[in-house]
Structures are given as structure tokens and as C-alpha cells.
Amino acid sequence: xxxxxxxxxxxxxxxxxPLFGGGRVTKTFLSYVLAAIFALSPxxxxxxxxxxxxxxxxxxxxxxxxxLYESIGARGPEVGEGRVIAHTTFKLTWTRKYxxxxxxxxxxxxxxxxxxxxxxxxxxxxxPPAVQTSxxxxxxxxxxxxxxxxxxxxxxxxxxxxxxIGLTVADDPDCKKIRVELTRRLGEISAKQRQRGRDFDKVxxxxxxxxxxxxxxxxxxx
Length: 222
Hints:
The chain is an alpha+beta fold. Helix content is 38%, strand content 27%. The protein has helices at residues 65-75, 129-164, 177-204, 210-219, and strands spanning 2-3, 6-7, 10-11, 29-30, 35-36, 52-60, 78-79, 82-83, 87-101, 104-123, 168-169. Strands 5, 6, 9, 10 and 11 form a five-stranded mixed beta sheet that branches. Strands 1-4 form a two-stranded antiparallel sheet. A hairpin with a 2-residue loop joins β7 and β8 (82-83). It is elongated. The chain starts with a strand and ends with a helix.
């Protein structure tokens, strides 16, 4: 998203795409998109489990909100064709057991192991008190946004569990057909989860949306 936005009568000064060779801060507002990156490994199991959630910080610098945001533009993780403020990734693996029952095949065990990683910016040095307050408000909003993506990922895994444990395919004593059927269903569930993420981002990062407001307050603050 690009546009000339003004707050308090002055232009919003934020970086364009990554700055090279001592590039300058411009008057163009560019929202570095928060991205949720999804990498799905097939499977599932109705069992007690808990996702492991970890934060992976990347270092930024600056003594004002505008400088911090400029540093995000230069150092944020690269996703797709550009850099982003933050993103959520996950690794999902399964312990799965197929059992032949007569001429049918049944999934009797499908235990997930889910690790969710939130990549977020972190100032490398102490900030002036007023800037620290502004930064804490900004990063809390960014974290809350990414945690929503984490929730949708966990809900997806639970849906896979419910769907797959006890899944039975007739006339499949070698448990080959069931793998094809499971993959088909996993694709549908995964696509639905990714669409939920896109719909959420569209609202959050639209004109006047939560993310835009967070950036404006940071850049136009102390």
C-alpha cells in the first residue's frame, strides 16, 4: 500500500523498500506487510498436545519512532519480493499409524508436533523513555496481530486431528488409498486456514486499519 498520509499537519516520514547506499527517508508511506508463512507437513491425532511457541527477534536501531521504522524497512525479514515487519511460521509433523482392519485401512494414531515461530523486531539499544513507551505500544499491537495467526494455525491442527483420527477407507488393505484421501482433505483444510489469514490481514492492513494506525503512531511519535 502506498499513499501520502499526514498526521498532525506534517508528512509521515517512513522508508520505502529496503534502503541501500545510505538512502534517505521519503515522504511515501509504505506499510511493510506482516506476513504469515505457512509450511504444512501432512497428518493428525486426537491426543493431548500443546504447541511450542517461540519468538525469534531481529535487531533494529534508532532513537526515534521514525528511525526505528526505517530500520525495520532495512533489516526486516525478507518474504516474497520485499521485507516485512514481522511474520509467523510453523513446523508441523505427525506421528501416524495406519492399521489394516479386514479389507479396510484405518488411521488409529495421529499425534501432532507443532512449533510456531514469531519473528519480531527488537531495538538493539535502550530507547529514550518517551520513545520506549511508544515502541512498547507498537510492538504489543504487532505481537497481538501475529498471535492471531498462531491461533488459526492451532485451530487448523485441531481440525486435522478431528477429521483424520479414525478415518477409514474401504477396500484398502495395503493402506494406499487412504493416503491419497488424507492428502486431499489436508489440502482443503490448509487452504481454508491460509484464506483466513489473508482475510484477517486485509482488514488489519487496510486504510485506517489497526496496523496502519500502529505505524502512524510510532512514526509520528517521539
